[in-house]
Design a protein that fits this description.
By secondary structure, this protein is mainly beta. Helices cover 8% and strands 54% of the residues. A hairpin with a 4-residue loop joins strand 7 and strand 8.
Length: 231
């Protein structure tokens, strides 16, 4: 009888234990990422039609990412930078042999979506995470600039690609190249908005800005410290 009662008690304990949630400590991902970086800028437009890096400028960037999973990220970019150009460097000749040069300081805030080619992260091997990943990105931005004492603003369409590398679980290094199609023809100054006297259609505006940025960022806000599994 005692043996039977003991077996029943053991069976009850095992059943209760099996019914309880199992807590497993795991290395979890993070939901947010902040960082910044430095880089250089390029310009294509009426004062430079071929050589993107003919008059390289500078940029400072700050970024914040929301990380829904290991494949996608939603990023807010803030840029301050400078672009310049000189039409005297071109083979094209403007009417009356005029030449133009400019320097523009711009400020930009953009919202972009990123797609990682690999499942980006560090963790358990069964998740098949990669410590580095190339990615593509696109979005919309608001561009504000000033030159010759005049300021203006427009919408831009950034398109580009980059690569990320994890130094550790929280710290990332990045390199990103963006080409930004502006919906204005005055980023290089009023004089270059129509140098040939031919009115441009809305979709044929010629001003592009590029940024090549090197960044460092930090991830925070773990999704959960313990994963609970319940049958």
């Amino acid at each position: 009888m005692k043996q039977t009662l003991r077996n029943i008690l053991i069976a009850c304990v095992v059943a209760i234990a099996a019914a309880l949630p199992v807590s497993v400590q795991a290395q979890e991902d993070f939901r947010f990422e902040v960082g910044g970086g430095l880089g250089m800028t390029g310009y294509l437009g009426d004062a430079n039609t071929t050589n993107l890096w003919g008059h390289p400028g500078w940029d400072i960037t700050a970024l914040m990412r929301y990380l829904p999973n290991n494949r996608f990220a939603f990023k807010t970019n803030l840029y301050v930078g400078s672009v310049s150009g000189n039409s005297a460097d071109m083979e094209n000749v403007f009417p009356d042999m005029q030449t133009y040069k400019f320097r523009t300081t711009f400020y930009e805030i953009g919202e972009l979506v990123e797609f990682n080619f690999f499942k980006y992260g560090m963790g358990e091997s069964y998740r098949k995470l990669k410590r580095w990943s190339p990615y593509i990105t696109a979005g919309l931005s608001l561009l504000v600039w000033s030159n010759d004492g005049r300021g203006s603003a427009t919408v831009a369409i950034p398109l580009g690609a980059g690569v990320k590398f994890k130094l550790n679980r929280r710290v990332n290094l990045g390199m990103e190249f963006l080409m930004k199609k502006t919906l204005s023809d005055r980023v290089d100054g009023k004089e270059l908005s129509d140098p040939y006297g031919i009115k441009h259609a809305f979709m044929k505006n010629t001003d592009w800005i590029s940024t090549l940025s090197f960044t460092i960022s930090y991830e925070f806000s773990e999704r959960c410290r313990a994963c609970n599994y319940k049958e």
